[in-house]
Model the fold of this input.
Amino acid sequence: MNIDKLIECKKKAEKNAQEMLRKRDLGEMLTQNELKEYIKNKFMLDDSDFDTTNILELAKRSIARQHNIELADIRFKDGYDCSGATSSMTKKILLIMAIEKDLNLYFSKEQSADITDISDIIKIAEKQWIKCDD
Done:
């Protein structure tokens, strides 16, 4: 893994988050493209990886890219940790936690478990951001 690329993507994700929060403060809603850009940087993906918006699938693509393997071979690198979670599931959970922190959102345990797609996060964010305006 290239450390310079890692640092660059981290800075871009932070900038993405700041921009989304700025728009929230202006009363604007989160868009799928903004969140996709944030996830792209968090997962160190390219635009070509986004023919899906399924977060677990994106996590698998991220792992494949980081290990420099084909997506079809991910099953060999997507091992289980001591809790029984796969690497891709752990990556999804860490992304959800990062989104909570970076975008000032809260996902209940049930919501976190039910999140499968980028649109699921947007729906939750819209409800919470509307409440902030009241």
Remarks:
- The chain has six helices and no strands.
- The chain has a mean pLDDT of 88.
